[in-house]
């Protein structure tokens, strides 16, 4: 086990700057997830840690030692990829033993490690099979076993579940979480799937265009996103956004108005924004209540999705084209075509400035 420290890490491919000044601390035994849209640099950052790409600038430390120039096999990292790339002509046992053999490990040690790993991953019954005789989930477990048998200090995963179907993905996600509880090893895991990030991580790193947008626990990122990008990326259905205007701001809160919602008195301060300033108001679907329409504040219900345990209601503002979503437990008393008023939960309204930075986050976290 080991900690990992990234100091002003940069990666340039030709003339393209891909990873930009990334500072990050991964604690010993921590499960850290890199999440972000396709192409934002997640795999590149992971490959820099593994030593599969050279570092253009900055410093990478594993267990306090600078490893910039250490080749991958000397870094003590194990990597699991999306394509498991098992050797088809080898048995499960041979696949897991292969790396150890290459490293000229003693025969008895190899057997000990492979058997111990097989026990943890419940592969003992399958050791003599070839990959083609395994299910997708079993193959993915063998790929993990191959990385784990070498007893790496850090396990790195690059979208390991993306090739599996939805129900298997949920099952394997659960297995990886339990594996981490049991082994307590340091893990860095890349995914574009915010649900995987939320459910697996001790700490989530949201990447955007090669930079860290925000780092925090799943709860922090959900409740106190520091930018509109994070607010929109974490959570499904996504947060509702609408244009708003700052009316006034004081020590114990601020007032904003938004089309269709009227004037709202919010507990956060507006962080030096001037009255009249254009803001974006954000509110999650579960923090919007529906009420009987009164006067001008009417939204039309244009779709109702019944999911069994909960209901999503899609609302069209009178002017404007962006639909809003309300989420509630099923059953819902609201029906298609009805006109309703929206009442946001004022304690859970987010405000973003013209640069999409969240306002009043510090105050909200103090209150939490
Ligand atoms: N070897 C390479 N040479 C040039 N560009 C690359 C190379 N590898 C990745 N890139 C570019 O770096 C960016 C980030 O890629 P990647 O780290 O794979 O993103 P992600 O894993 O988040 O989808 C992409 O624009 C990709 O085209
Ligand atoms: Mg990738």
Short structural description:
The protein has 368 residues and is α+β, with helices and mostly antiparallel strands.
What does this structure look like?
It contains nine helices and 21 strands. The protein is an alpha+beta fold and 368 residues long. It has two domains: 229 residues, P-loop containing nucleotide triphosphate hydrolases (Rossmann fold), CATH 3.40.50; 130 residues, Beta Barrel (OB fold (Dihydrolipoamide Acetyltransferase, E2P)), CATH 2.40.50.140. The strands form four sheets. The chain has a six-stranded mixed beta sheet with strand order 6-7-8-3-9-10, sandwiched between helices. A hairpin with a 2-residue loop joins strand 11 and strand 12. Helix 2 crosses helix 3 and helix 2 packs parallel to helix 4. It is elongated, with a radius of gyration of 25 Å. The C terminus is likely disordered. The protein binds adenosine-5'-diphosphate and magnesium ion. Magnesium ion binds next to helix 1.
């Amino acid at each position: 086990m080991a900690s990992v420290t990234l100091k002003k890490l940069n990666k340039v491919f030709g003339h393209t700057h891909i990873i930009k000044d990334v500072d990050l601390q991964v604690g010993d035994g921590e499960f850290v997830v890199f999440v972000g849209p396709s192409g934002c640099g997640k795999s590149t950052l992971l490959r820099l840690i593994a030593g599969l790409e050279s570092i253009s600038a900055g410093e990478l430390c594993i267990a306090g030692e600078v490893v910039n120039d250490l080749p991958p096999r000397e870094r003590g990292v194990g990597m699991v990829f999306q394509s498991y790339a098992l050797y088809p002509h080898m048995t499960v046992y041979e696949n897991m033993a292969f790396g150890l053999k290459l490293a000229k490990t003693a025969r008895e040690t190899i057997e000990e490690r492979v058997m111990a790993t097989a026990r943890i991953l419940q592969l003992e019954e399958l050791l003599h099979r070839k990959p083609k005789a395994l299910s997708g989930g079993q193959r993915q477990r063998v790929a993990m076993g191959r990385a784990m048998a070498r007893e790496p200090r850090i396990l790195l995963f690059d979208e390991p579940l993306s090739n599996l179907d939805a129900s298997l993905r949920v099952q394997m996600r659960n297995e990886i979480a339990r594996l981490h509880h049991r082994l307590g090893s340091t893990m860095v895991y890349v995914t574009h799937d915010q649900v995987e990030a939320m459910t697996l991580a001790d700490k989530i790193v949201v990447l955007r265009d090669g930079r860290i947008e925000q780092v925090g626990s799943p709860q922090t990122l959900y409740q106190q996103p520091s930018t509109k990008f994070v607010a929109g990326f974490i959570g499904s259905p996504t947060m509702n956004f609408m244009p708003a205007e700052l009316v006034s701001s004081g020590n114990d809160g601020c007032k904003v108005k938004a089309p269709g919602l009227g004037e709202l008195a919010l507990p956060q301060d507006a962080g030096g924004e001037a009255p009249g300033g254009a803001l974006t108001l954000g509110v999650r679907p579960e923090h919007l209540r529906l009420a009987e329409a009164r006067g001008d504040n009417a939204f039309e219900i244009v779709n109702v999705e019944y999911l069994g345990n909960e209901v999503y209601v899609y609302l069209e503002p009178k002017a404007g084209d962006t639909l809003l979503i309300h989420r509630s437990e099923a059953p819902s008393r609201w029906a298609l075509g009805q006109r309703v008023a929206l009442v946001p939960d004022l304690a859970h309204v987010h405000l973003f400035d013209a640069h999409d930075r969240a306002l009043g986050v510090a105050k909200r976290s103090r209150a939490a």
